[in-house]
């Protein structure tokens, strides 16, 4: 039996208000038989189909960068002083700003803040 999806799945759920989620998954065809002959209910597939039928999207699992990479770590806009006293600004930030190797910055220290100001026209050869 092909599992129900879309409007058919929603109708089955509405027509069986007293059933448990497991029973609804079985009724709508979200089961499989294992190698040793046991019947298993595919709850995650059922729940995903139910969310899809209700047009509910969770997360951004389908959103990938144009270059096909998996994304990696995201910029959190916070950094922490390392054990050796250094501050490391990650590649996510430099990429986001379009910075190239050799870009020069001035460091301005203020009240509780550090500002990096790009020096225009100053570029070292790498």
Q: How many angstroms does the end-to-end distance come to? A: 63 Å
Poorly predicted regions:
none
Report strand order across the widest sheet: 1-2
Q: What's the rounded overall pLDDT mean?
A: 83
Q: Looking at the structure, what is the overall shape?
A: elongated
What is the chain-wise order of helices and strands?
A: HHEEHHEE
Estimate the helix proportion, in percent: 25-40%
Alpha-beta content class: alpha+beta
Overall strand count = 4
Using only C-alpha atoms, the radius of gyration works out to 27 Å
β-sheet strand percentage: 15-25%
Q: What multimeric state do the chains show? A: single chain
- Major β-sheet, in short? 2 strands, antiparallel
Number of helices: 4
Question: If you had to describe this structure to a student in words, what would you say it looks like?
Answer:
- The radius of gyration is 27 Å and the shape is elongated.
- It has 126 residues and is of the alpha+beta class.
- Among the domains are: 48 residues, no CATH class; 27 residues, no CATH class.
- The mean pLDDT is 83.
- The protein has four helices and four strands; from the N terminus they run ααββααββ.
- A hairpin with a 2-residue loop joins strand 3 and strand 4.
- The longest helix has 11 residues.
- Helix 1 packs across helix 3.
- It is 28% helix and 20% strand.
- The strands form two sheets. A two-stranded antiparallel sheet has the order 1-2. It has a two-stranded antiparallel sheet with strand order 3-4.
